[in-house]
Specification:
The chain is of the alpha+beta class. It has 9 helices and 12 strands. Strands 7-6-5-4-8 form a 5-stranded antiparallel sheet, with helices on one face. Strands 10-11-9-12 form a 4-stranded antiparallel sheet, covered by helices on one side. α2 packs across α3 and α4 runs antiparallel to α5.
Length: about 300
């Protein structure tokens, strides 16, 4: 949003004193022309901002200027506070920043939400890993990954880490894989080891970075029709979209969903035990029965 960018521009000038338009353009990831438009917008709003030409010139604020909180609406002030509060999820020490912002906005910085994306019992491990990945992304550090793929094979990769993404209950690292010569998604939980090799990269991939939904699935998608027992209603509503669920008169649920046809879907359906019935497709129904029989043969002598 434009107001967010204006706040960031002011914060940069307050922190640095003076910056050139190209420097601000790079920091805020917008064009130089947009920076000059933002300067005009701030000037018309009464902010003492000016640009000077020549050697040693740039964009700066008049000495003694302090941030005017009226530049942001009450809702925008709350959004900034809430955004900073969410950084606690990555175990970041943001209390000093929250106190400063609360004082500037003249409102308490009491946390209204607590978010913790670490797994149960693995808080320290996950926090250390996210800190390493965050540092690598921000510092453009090349990473060496030991990664376990969906086939179970472990491979070594060198990547340019670009972005952390949270989608569908999982964290993913999006990066440019040097071996593949293309963008790849790595499920963070499958990263066996991640190490910085002490080298950096200069490429800027932001304009070419594909959205997450553009990633091609490794396996063909198949349409499933499932009947799930009433006893597992909590899982039905936890794990499936409401539009895919049809309650049945007997209390069971009819679920229609598209999943990748690989070993994962078999293991996932087996986690429902005898409370799920695969109605379609017939091939998956047969495969699931064969797996269940193998499990029975393995445990029953």
């Amino acid at each position: 949003m434009k107001n967010d960018r204006l706040f960031q521009l002011l914060y940069l000038l307050l922190a640095k004193g003076r910056m050139t338009a190209p420097e601000l353009s790079q920091a805020l990831e917008v064009s130089v022309r947009t920076i000059y438009r933002d300067v005009d917008t701030l000037s018309m709003a009464g902010v003492p901002i000016y640009a000077s030409a020549g050697k040693g010139g740039g964009i700066s604020l008049l000495p003694g200027y302090t941030f005017d909180k009226t530049l942001l609406s009450d809702e925008e002030q709350n959004q900034l506070l809430f955004a900073v509060q969410s950084m606690k999820a990555a175990d970041q020490n943001v209390e000093p920043l929250l106190h400063k912002m609360g004082a500037a906005f003249q409102k308490p910085s009491h946390s209204w939400i607590e978010v913790d994306f670490s797994r149960w019992g693995m808080g320290r491990t996950d926090t250390a890993r996210f800190e390493l990945l965050k540092t690598a992304i921000l510092g453009k550090q090349i990473l060496s990954l030991t990664y376990c793929g969906s086939s179970g094979a472990t491979t070594q990769r060198k990547i340019h880490p670009l972005k952390l993404i949270y989608k569908d209950k999982h964290w993913y690292l999006q990066g440019f894989c040097l071996q593949a010569g293309d963008f790849r998604l790595f499920k963070v939980g499958r990263i066996v080891e991640a190490l910085s090799i002490g080298e950096t990269f200069s490429e800027n991939y932001q304009d070419d970075l594909p959205p997450l939904d553009a990633e091609e699935p490794s396996f063909p998608m198949v349409h499933l029709k499932l009947r799930i027992a009433k006893r597992l209603a909590f899982r039905v509503y936890d794990e499936f979209n409401r539009n895919s669920i049809t309650p049945e008169p007997a209390g069971s649920f009819l679920v229609e969903v598209d999943f990748p046809m690989d070993g994962w879907v078999v293991g996932y359906l087996l986690s429902f035990g005898a409370e799920v019935e695969v109605l379609e497709p017939g091939d998956l129904r047969r495969i699931l029965g064969e797996y269940a029989q193998k499990i029975a043969d393995h445990h029953i002598t």
